[in-house]
Amino acid sequence: MTAGDGAADARQGIQSVELAMTVLRALEEGRGPMSLTQLAAASGMGASKAHRYLVSLGRVGLVTQSRSSGLYDMGPSLRRLGMEALRRMDEVSLASEHLPGLRDRTRHAVNLAVWGEHGPVIVRWDYGSYALPITVRVGATLPMLSSSVGRVYLAHLPETLTVPVLRGERESGTHADVPDAEIA
User: Fold this and answer.
1) How far is CA 173 from CA 123, 136, 143, 145, 170, in A?
2) Helix 47-59 / helix 15-29 crossing angle, nearest 10 deg
3) pLDDT digits over 138-183, tens only?
4) Claim: this prediction has a pTM higher than 0.70
5) How distant, in Å, are the alpha carbons of 8, 13, 94 from that of 4?
């Protein structure tokens, strides 16, 4: 449950923890190191109150202050917490929860692909109301150049990941005949 849920709002919490989170959120939204004045304004509190929260957050490593500039930024404990949260996250399950709703709203087939060693791999496929001229099985690796999923990955992933896969497709002769200018 999140703080915006009705059931969560009815339960008693610790106000100082919630206020400390407003400072951390302000730091997150600031997109870089911030001054005390900036943090106080962004968290909606006075500078002296924000400073007390920053001192406590600094003691537990959630915030650091640069000795040279005096600016505050995310601390090592916050980075470790974030990395552990990412490690525990199951992105496929999280994204899969939304596929049936998208399929039902559009009545089209929907799929979910992840980046694999040789390109995009289908990890979930939900059939829609309309018959498709192809069947793609879960576990199939799709080509980069001749599939829409491959084109999406090609458009958004760094070349360090896509170029070796493209090279492999071209060497195997399984790629679509697409001019280099269209790929760049």
Assistant:
1) 25, 20, 11, 12, 5
2) 90
3) 999 999 988 899 999 999 999 999 989 988 888 877 655 665 655 5
4) no
5) 7, 13, 20
